[in-house]
Amino acid sequence: MAEMGEMQNISPPSPRLKKLFLICAGVGLGLGVGIVATVALVVSFNHRPIPPRDWPRLEVEGAGLQAKLKTDWDRSVRYQLVVTPRSDDLRSAFDSAVRTHEDSITFTILLYNKAGFQLCKKEVRPSTSVDAANHIDSLLAKDSLYSFECTRSAYLEADHWSLSYVFPALVFDKPSASETHRHIEPRETAPVMKISSGKPFEGYDILTGFDIISGHLEMLSGKTFVVYREGEQGTASMWNAQGETGSQPSIHFSCDWLNECVLRNTTNDQAIHAKLQR
């Protein structure tokens, strides 16, 4: 009976407490809805498309090429790369060079900020396009960069672009007046290395040694490249072994203006990436 008396003494919540509880519940619900809406808005803002951008055309002097790049953003960077001969006079030589080196041709798209620091990088293997006469008149690449290759913020910061390449370094013979209709064949040479600010450079050299511990690949001219990819260090070791058992291999190097390079062994057409140290 005493317990019943005690229970009877417990009064129900006052209207004021009920009102306070309802207010707190409403505020909590509103905050929850606000947080969800804010997160959704931020996600939507960070994934909104970025209009297409046509980058300035590049003149790849060492290979007789010109390159055009178009990009946009739709949850990732999408690109369209078109590489063509620099002039109509080089069309026949371009067709011949691509047909004989198609399996080894690669390009690397590089995006930089205003200070010249590399933001995004994508290596591509282009496909060929032919004209009505079945002559190869351009190389095309169309795909996307993964988020780890180029974030949205990095893409927005990009100010200019460059292109490194593995492509035959060609010199074209000019026909005489009596040979104006003669087919111009490409002639491979060992061109003088050209280095100019903001432009790629390339040339040939002879491999003289490789240290797999440091990744240093030494050249006859005194240049030192650093092979920084573990898998490609094994390839460089095989190149070095080739020189120890026979003639030293000739290496074609193609570098961007920040000294990021692609090295190609002209004997077997194998290619690796490296950084020019000196």
What does this structure look like?
It is a single chain. This protein has helices at about 1-10, 15-45, 90-100, 150-155, 230-245; strands at about 50-55, 60, 65-75, 75-85, 105-110, 120-125, 125-130, 135-145, 160-165, 170, 185-190, 200-210, 215-220, 225, 250-255, 260-265, 270-275. The protein is α+β, with helices and mostly antiparallel strands. Helices cover about 25% and strands about 35% of the residues. It has two domains: about 50-190, no CATH class; about 195-278. Strands 1, 2, 3, 4, 7 and 8 form a six-stranded antiparallel sheet that branches.
Q: Which descriptors would you attach to this protein?
A:
alpha+beta, 278 residues, 5 helices, 6-stranded antiparallel sheet, 2 domains, single chain
Q: Please give the share of residues in helix.
A: 25-40%
Tally the helices.
5
Structural class: alpha+beta
Chain-averaged pLDDT:
77
